[in-house]
Specification:
Length: about 230
């Protein structure tokens, strides 16, 4: 009987809040502890063509480099098989390229990795956009996550309004029976309050551990131990 690999899903309370930064930082920290890690972002938009100089700044390239992997056409395809050029929600970006994506295909791809990975490997899946962002014409990121039923790390920013967004996402996960492993508040540049202040406010309303990370900081050790 096949068994699933150990895995975690990194979801966002919103978009452009540092989700990839947290995922990459977590990946590097797990590798430093001697863990085998496979970090995947199956679905990505706003990705320039491979070979474009700006590709090195894409989420996919950042995650490959965090794993110590070369950025090649093969590794890019293995990490992010669905890539779209427009910096829009995946459903809109796909439509602009006259392409389509079904939730069953996305979930099936992820399940193949979960079933086929070495039992000693930790899989880290990064979502796209915010938790309720559409990932296909019919499905949201929440439906993707529910289909995989993986423990979730929720990433929040520290911008004005981040507390409400994070608590709304955490409550959504709770109402849908999903496991919230922890919350990470990633520093938003120019925010009126510190990440620590935002994290303390969120921690008063959720049962999961809440951590902070600076834009140029390392992944909190407590979060690495949790994963």
């Amino acid at each position: 009987m096949s068994t699933r690999a150990r895995a975690v899903f990194v979801a966002g309370a919103g978009t452009e809040i540092g989700k990839t930064y947290v995922t990459a930082s977590l990946t590097r920290a797990l590798r430093r502890r001697g863990s085998d890690v496979s970090t995947l972002k199956p679905l990505a938009s706003g990705v320039p063509p491979f070979g474009d100089p700006s590709f090195r700044e894409s989420d996919t390239a950042i995650l490959l480099e965090a794993q110590g992997l070369p950025v090649t056409p093969e590794t890019v395809e293995a990490c992010s098989p669905w890539r779209f050029l427009a910096p829009l929600g995946p459903d809109l970006a796909a439509a602009r390229e006259v392409r389509s994506l079904r939730l069953c295909d996305l979930v099936g791809w992820c399940e193949d990795r979960l079933q086929g990975a070495d039992p000693e490997t930790i899989l880290v899946f990064e979502g796209v956009g915010g938790l309720m962002s559409p990932v296909t014409a019919e499905a949201t990121g929440l439906e993707w996550l529910k289909a995989l039923a993986l423990p979730t790390i929720l990433v929040s920013g520290s911008y004005l309004g981040a507390i409400s967004h994070a608590l709304t996402a955490a409550e959504t996960l709770r109402c849908h029976g999903q496991t919230l492993l922890g919350v990470v508040v990633c520093e938003s540049l120019g925010a009126p309050t510190s990440p620590e202040t935002v994290a303390a406010a969120i921690a008063r309303h959720v049962l999961a551990p809440v951590h902070c990370i600076a834009r140029d900081g390392e992944c909190p050790e407590a979060l690495v131990r949790l994963v």
